[in-house]
Amino acid sequence: MAGFSSIIGHEQIKKHLQNAISMDKISHAYIFHGPDQSGKMALAKSFAMALQCQQHGTEGCMECLSCRQVLSGAHPDVIYLQHEKPNTISVEDIRKQVNGTVGMKPYASHYKIYIIDEAEKMNQQAQNALLKTIEEPPAYAVIMLLTNNAGTFLPTIISRCITLDLKVVPDGKIRTFLMEKYQIPDYKADICTAFAQGNVGKAIQLAESEDFNEIKNASLQLLKRIKEIELYELMEAVKQISEYKLEINDYFDIMMIWYRDVIFYKATSDVNRLIFKDEVYNIKKQASKSSYEGIENIIKALEKAKRRLNANVNFDLTMELLLLTIKEN
Ligand SMILES: [Zn+2]
Fold this sequence. Notes:
Elements: H1 11-22, E1 29-33, H2 40-52, H3 65-72, E2 78-80, H4 91-99, E3 112-116, H5 124-135, E4 141-147, H6 155-158, E5 162-165, H7 171-182, H8 186-196, H9 200-208, H10 210-225, H11 234-242, H12 248-268, H13 280-289, H14 292-310, H15 315-328
This protein binds zinc ion (ZN).
């Protein structure tokens, strides 16, 4: 993480925040609202760095003491709220770390900045406590609430904050970014991008993940030979999949993308827009062997199996049924 210029997408939000700095119209409270890993923390930190920078630009210089402290997470006037209980931010957390310290002027900078990540975890009492500070903040205080669900906030909180909604980032941007920054080949960038669905953090995680490659290879290997394997081998296949139980949603997504590629190729004969470009041979083969109806049945079965597993239906049974459906269609 290093400043606004290193963040992919979110152009409007960056512009809004940088305009606020240049016009000296900083609000006392912001809500950064968007899915997990969509870039909320990167935006909040970049904003904090720019606000505290000793060069007073609209972007942190990344060289002054203040910027270096923000980058290393050790700036005395950029405070990250900690909470002891993993699923709750309690009223004590807010009282102790925000209300109890906000009256003390910043040590070394213009602003005293509070970053509250996973702010949806504040219970009602915590929100009411925070409201006290947001209603009458000292001139130097800036509070940033980061959340994947602003619907949990009291209307009184929302009305006093500037809400910044993070939009998904266009695929083309993510793809180019992954190829340039992580030096991965185009077909891999395509796969990670298709998976991430506009979420840059997720795309980066996939690009860097060895596990993801392993799951992808295991999943594709099975799909390529599933028509040929004998019924009695299915249980063995289920056992192999159960090694990836924790990442089963990724496993499903890979299968889903595979069959979408098959159906797309069958309909268009266009290889350029396939996600699994390095598997063209096998995709062609599968497309010639399967009917549209068959592939659609498989895609439906995949969706159904995914729902079942998320509802805690028996793993082996669900997977066995799924593999049977795939084999027969
Ligand atoms: Zn600086």
